[in-house]
Amino acid sequence: MSHKFNLFDAPLVSNFHRISTSERADLRSVFDGSLVHAEPYNAVTLVMNHDTQPSQALALSVAEWFVPIAYALILLRDAGYPCLFYGDLYGIKGGVENDWRGPSCSGKLPDLTLARKLYAYGEQNDYFNHPNLIGWVRRGTWDYPAGCAVVLSNAEQGELRMYVGELHAGQKWSDVLGWEKGEVEIEGDGFG
């Protein structure tokens, strides 16, 4: 597509809503029918905006527990142009009294954004093998060699073995948001 414009990915927001409001929905379907899947260089990815926030005509709720997952999906992957919503960063007051909603992601959205800036570079390898446990690796580049590994679940905890590269052998990786305690040591073959 050689168009010189970008479009907001409304189907992706609809998928976020569907998955977040369904019990044990298949995470592997999150990009099905989305613009970012069809035209990754022309898609503006978002979780919510001024039109979809509560009390607006196009309100489409994404369950609060899923918002960090949705932001990881738009911020830490290689496709699309992520757009953060001011209300998710700083909180919003809807159009009705006593409708204050604080910052999303338990205030960790700036940390996710910083993780994008520091680590989300290079080749991407997806691990979408289980309906409720998915992940991907960004391998880094010569100027941003750290890379990142992202693991997301909408059900019970699980384990996902991913290749991050032999150059990381012996390193200990941890959750940049601090929600999961412990570390993963990268093995000599580059898997963790």
Shape: globular
Structural class: alpha/beta
The strand order across the widest sheet is: 1-2-3
The tally of strands reads: 10
What's the rounded overall pLDDT mean? 91
Proportion of residues in helical segments = 10-25%
Radius of gyration: 17 Å
Figure out the total of helices.
Answer: 5
Q: Give the topology string: H per helix, E per strand.
A: EHHEHEHEEHEEEEE
Q: Termini distance?
A: 37 Å
Q: Characterize the largest beta sheet: strand count, sense, and whether it forms a barrel.
A: 3 strands, parallel
Question: Low-confidence runs (pLDDT<50, min 5 residues)?
Answer: none
What portion of residues belong to β-strands?
15-25%
Task: Give a description of the structure.
This protein has 192 residues and is of the alpha/beta class. Helices cover 21% and strands 19% of the residues. The protein has 5 helices and 10 strands, in the order E-H-H-E-H-E-H-E-E-H-E-E-E-E-E. A 3-stranded parallel beta sheet has the order 1-2-3.
